[in-house]
Design brief:
With about 140 residues, the chain is mainly α. It has one domain. The protein is about 75% helix and about 0% strand. Helix 2 packs parallel to helix 4 and helix 3 packs antiparallel against helix 4. It is rod-shaped and about 85 Å long. The two termini are about 40 Å apart.
Length: about 140
């Protein structure tokens, strides 16, 4: 899961630049046409959320709770994107991608936490081996 978090984090940072520029152009189109839509502004917020979630994903890829934080940011980005899309159709695609990334992080964190608990329980119940003194005989305590 560490590699997946790293890849999704890097992909999010790269996509945030693309989504940001695309949203600026959409916002400029909304302003010129005076249609009252906020798709460009919403897209820019989604780009910021993608950037923050990508940084959090990379920084906390080895930890237990970082996946939940990054997943929460992705879910917030998806809600923002779907709520403000309007005629900016690509924003629905970016919001769907945020939703997929968010669910991946949250489900992956649940699975890795469950596996970590099982591993800790198996280590706790395993009998300890007595160390030897190097000549093949076991040391007495």
């Amino acid at each position: 899961m560490k590699t997946t978090k790293l890849v999704i984090g890097i992909l999010s940072i790269v996509l945030s630049v693309f989504v940001g520029f695309q949203s600026m152009v959409a916002g400029l189109g909304n302003t010129i046409s005076k249609n009252g839509e906020v798709g460009g502004s919403g897209g820019f917020l989604v780009a910021i959320v993608l950037l923050v979630a990508g940084i959090v994903a990379i920084a906390t890829r080895k930890g237990q709770k970082g996946g939940f934080v990054a997943g929460g940011f992705y879910i917030v980005g998806a809600i923002l994107g779907f709520a403000t899309a309007g005629s900016y159709g690509d924003l629905k695609i970016w919001a769907g991608l945020c939703l997929i990334f968010g669910l991946t992080f949250i489900i992956g964190s649940f699975i890795s936490n469950k596996n970590a608990k099982k591993l800790a329980a198996s280590r706790k119940n395993r009998p300890r081996k007595r160390p030897n003194n190097g000549n093949g005989k076991k040391r007495r305590r």
